[in-house]
Amino acid sequence: MKMMIEDSFLEEILNITLLSLKVSGSAVLIGSLIGVPIGMILGLGRFRGKQSFMRFIDVTLRSFVNTFMGLPPVVVGLVVYLLLTSLGPFGPLRLLYTPTAMIITQLMMVVPIITGVTMSAVGSVEKAIREKALSLGATDGQAAWMVLREARMGVLTAITVAFGAAVSEVGGIMITGGNIRWVTRTLTTAVVVEVELGNFALAISLGVILLSMAFAINLALTIIQLKGARW
Amino acid sequence: MKKPSKILIVVVTLVVVVVNVLAYEQYVNSRKSVVVLATTTSTYDSGLLDYLMPKFESKSNVEVHIISVGTGQAMETAKRGDADLVLVHSKKLELEFINSTYGIHRVGVMYNDFVIIGPTSDPAAINGLSNATRAFKRIANKGAEDNAIFVSRADKSGTNMLELSIWSKLEMTPSNKTQAWYLEAGAGMGTVLRMANEKEAYTLTDRATWISFRSPLSNMAVLVQGDQILLNPYAVILVNPEKYPQRNYKGALALARFMISEEGQNLIASFTREEEILFTPIARNLELAKKLGFPDQESELAWYDAQS
Question: If one looks up domain A22-176 in CATH, what number appears?
Fold first, then answer.
């Protein structure tokens, strides 16, 4: 028990937690910038014109997004590893076994999730809101804006779901980060190490931290959603 | 359309800031001297490296990043140019690594030994045998009768390589597919020890990991030890700078020199877990090193000592 209050021990837990937040937070932030606009465009059905070619693109893109939403993290990790390894196309950047490599891994995971959830959120309100706006005399652009405003809670959900997936992911960042102590060890990979080392008490405490983080973020989301209903 | 919303501006600003911070960190890191050491789970899990590396880092200004995997994977990592040096224990794989010109200057650092552990009930009756091969034979025989289980690392680690070489001496290639008593875990030593404990199975382990992990493993005991074949020497090999000039050869050399220096060797000798010494240094004990499979120890040591 004495060990539990040692400074270096707390320092390490703090380091691990902050790295988790940094990696997953950066991935989700950058991922939102890419995923939200794509999801909105797909959701608004801008490709669903009269031309069958555009419709073909629309269907293909949607299927891609839906497939990649379920991308197994270890596969993403493996692909990113092969891209970043010294012999790979991006080897000279020397990014393997750095937090940046982990962010890239999670970015590839979260972009489809954010795109997909945004897409369906926008899509679900699109028809009703659009028609109402148009009937009230809005222009096409104004109608689209109304749809996006109405779907904002869905976008928020997309971002939260993506963060939850990223912060709890372990297989991918294990491969690309290497699980180096003080450098690329996150909450999830630390749990793997501590279980391997048989330190179940520590593994459980790390798990609790992970769980509390997820809870705090979902709590914030719920509060925003409740307030949002009154906007 | 309305003017861009405030949220969008905030998000874009945040992204720009984050990307810049990341790029800056990457830049700072690229200027720091970082050595990537690919090594086995046994050296890491036993706590040796966490004990040794801070002492090296504090006097050398080099940061050591440890990738702890099996011996086979450690050398694969180095072969792809993702590590600067390896600390491993499988002579066969080590020589392949050198012969394929990926590695240079193999030098013995330390050794410990392997032991066969198993359930205290010992269904295969191997307790006290001094011949590991015979013990394996008995386990296989009892296993075929469904009375014993063996858990294999099955991960190309040094421990796994030794285990396979013992089976091959018996002209056996056990596999989970055909033999129900042979479990291929594909996991690190700690996990395999716990699996063996849960399943009351036999397994091969290095003594260092066993000592570090044994206290909660109440069903298990050391049954066979002391066979010559069970000696477990660890070697350091540098990644060939001609193959990968972009790697940190200087840092790797400094780290290797530290491990085989008087100071490093003394530190290894004084590292204990539960009041037991886990590794015996051999770098400067030329006779012992020769016996443990390092015929060129003297010249390699001289080479390392001549570098600066």
Answer: 1.10.3720.10
CA angle B31, A92, A85 (to 5 degrees): 110
Joined together, the tokens standing for residue B258 give 């530290």
Whether B191 and B272 map to the same domain: the answer is no
What is the predicted pLDDT for the residue at B279? 93
Backbone angles phi and psi of B295, in degrees to 5:
-65, -25
Last residue of a domain, one of B230, B264, B292: B230
Note the ipTM here.
0.75
- Rounded Cα distance, A97 and A17, in Å: 18
Nearest residue in chain A measured CA to CA from B49: A181
Give SS3 for B137: helix
3-state secondary structure B145-160: CCCCCEEECCCCCHHH
CB contact under 8 A, B82 and A100: no
Is A98 part of the contact surface with chain B (CB cutoff 8 Å)? yes
Domain C-terminal end among B199, B230, B261:
B230
- Angle, helix B158-169 to helix B91-99, in steps of 10 degrees: 110
Residue given tokens 């050391």 in the structure block: B222
**What is the 8-class DSSP label of residue A176?**
H
Which residue(s) pair with B33 in the sheet? B62
User: Domain containing B151: what range?
Assistant: 113-230
Q: Is residue B177 part of a domain?
A: yes
Model-level pTM? 0.82
Q: How far apart are CA B305 and CA B191, in angstroms?
A: 39
Looking at the structure, tell me whether residues B67 and B133 fall in a common domain. no
Give residue for tokens 């991935």.
A27
Backbone φ and ψ for B109, nearest 5 degrees, come out as -110, -45
Question: Of A163, A148, A152, whose CA–CA distance to A43 is shortest?
Answer: A148
Q: Is-contact A165 A109, C-beta < 8 A?
A: yes
- Chain A interface includes B22 (CB < 8 A): yes
Q: In chain A, positions 26-45, which contact chain B (CB-CB < 8 Å)?
A: 26, 29-30, 32-33
Cβ-count burial of B29 within 10 angstroms (0-12 exposed, 13-18 middle, 19+ buried)? middle
- Do B73 and B133 fall into the same domain? no
Q: Where do the domains of chain A lie?
A: 22-176
* Cβ distance of B65 and A95 shorter than 8 Å: no
Give how many domains chain B has, as a whole number: 2
Give pLDDT tens digits for B212-261.
889 889 889 999 999 999 999 999 999 999 999 989 999 999 999 999 99
Is residue B19 in some structural domain?
no
CA distance B230 to B171: 18
Instruction: Specify the CATH number for the domain of residue B121.
Output: 3.40.190.10
Sign of the Cα pseudo-torsion (B119, B120, B126, B129, in order): positive
Pick the range with the lowest mean pLDDT from A58-62, B92-96, B129-133.
A58-62
CA distance linking residue A155 with residue A160, whole number of Å: 9
Structure tokens at B74: 């450690």
CB B78 within 8 A of CB B103: yes
In angstroms, rounded to a whole number, what is the distance separating the alpha carbons of residues B135 and B151? 14
Whether chain A has a CB inside 8 Å of the CB on B82: the answer is yes
Q: Which of B86, B102, B96, B85 is nearest to B40 (CA)?
A: B86
